[in-house]
Amino acid sequence: MYLRWRQLLPRWIEVMPVELPGRGMRMGERFVEAYDALVERICTEQAVAMQGGFAIFGHSMGALLAYGVVQRLRSLGRPLPVALFASGSSAPSQRDSDRLPDTHGDDALIADLRRQGGTPEEVFASAELMRITLDTLGADYRVCRSFEYVSADTPLPMPLHVLAGRQDDIDAARVEAWSAHAGGAFSLDWFDGGHFFIRQHEAAVLAALVRRLGLSVAGGRHASHAVA
User: Which Pfam families does this entry report, sorted A to Z (predicted)?
Assistant: First the structure.
């Protein structure tokens, strides 16, 4: 999906997708299932990308990881993004691990895939694809369960832009709570659709992303790339 964005976004935005261990071309690697360890890995592996004028975009678990990456960059005294985009996620202070399905059985994970939508029927029909999907989803949820919010975290020192689906099952108040994490400009854009509204209404999502990113870097300095 993010690779396709390279063809759809303005040329002044260079999209640099982040592929996590155990997925895609990195399928031969072991999953990293601890939140802090995964954030640290991303900061190390993407050190070159996160220089100059850059923004970070994350959807679902990616939004939580993006938040952690910014906090870690700040603690290390490294350059910070010109903006953070958090999509399809509760605010870090409002995470509810009880709503996550049991990762020890396939039935709960399959039901969760059905509930969220966005998974092609071809995946459900293929035992091999389902095994890959369920293993990845289980690893994702273990990452999310290992996240611990630190109430002493100070607000983010850059514009924070949140995107959400009106039909997503995440409570609106948990999404709106992202505003408490914003130390500067904050925006919240709602779109029709469920958890994967960024696929269902891609053109509208990208238009909002370009608009918000442009405002975040107003004054003549554009972000040269976006780490997604």
Answer: Thioesterase
Whether the pTM exceeds 0.85: the reply is yes
Select from 180, 178, 183, 176 the least CA-distant residue to 159.
Answer: 183
Q: Is residue 19 part of a domain?
A: yes
The b-or-e profile of 207-227 (16+ CB within 10 A means b, else e) is ebbeebbeebbeeeebbebbb
Contact call for residues 215 and 160 (beta carbons, < 8 A): no
pLDDT tens column, 138-171? 898 899 999 999 876 788 999 999 999 999 989 9
CATH classification of the domain holding 201: 3.40.50.1820
Residue 127 corresponds to which tokens in the numbers above? 């035992």
Please pick, among 60, 90, 187, 216, the residue that the annotation labels catalytic: 60
| 3-state SS class at 136 | helix
Q: Is 182 exposed, middle or buried (0-12, 13-18, 19+ CB in 10 A)?
A: buried
60: annotated active-site residue: yes
DSSP state of 47: T
pLDDT in tens, 94-118: 987 666 656 667 777 778 777 776 6
Contact present, 47 and 123 (Cβ < 8 Å) = no
| Structural domains of the chain, count | 1
Contacts of 177 (CB under 8 A, 6+ apart): 90, 91, 93, 94
Bridge partner residues of 198 (DSSP): none
